[in-house]
Specification:
This protein has 176 residues and is mostly helical. It has eight helices and three strands; from the N terminus they run ααααβααββαα.
Amino acid sequence: MTKKGSNARKARIRAQADKAGTTYRQAAQTLSNERVAWMETARAIFHSPEELRDTQEIYLIDLSEKGARLPELVKVCLYALTLRLGTGTLIDPRGVTCTVTELAAATGLSTAAVENALYVAEAHGWIREAGNKEYRLTVPGEDIDMYEYWLQKQKEPVQDVAVYQRMRDQLAAATP
């Protein structure tokens, strides 16, 4: 955390302590508890059974339409992961926490086959590793519009015109 952020947090805690007439430590605990309660509320909203069912249904439709050429082993692993939607540590309903061993047991595949299937799924853009034993189910190209929008909104994307122009010229010469 930056010093500025740290100071802002301390100021909020001091203000809370003064307002409630408590000690700094008690105010910090209260703010921490409020944050945890907010996260749990948000998680409950995004991880409602209906929301998770809708997320799974949409993902499986995309998988059947856009992932038709994926190997069946990969599709089986992805399906097994959709059954665990919402188990990730973040609020994101597409978060999935699952070990390779657990996924192998759930699918009936060997751990080596599951690892390779996950690599194939990641290479094709169907999952993204979000941490240790945690994945985020994705649909290839789902964020392209957002990233292209932000790229277009860059006020001055080129910092060194000479280097950029040289690279453009090299690209033009290297491609037909």
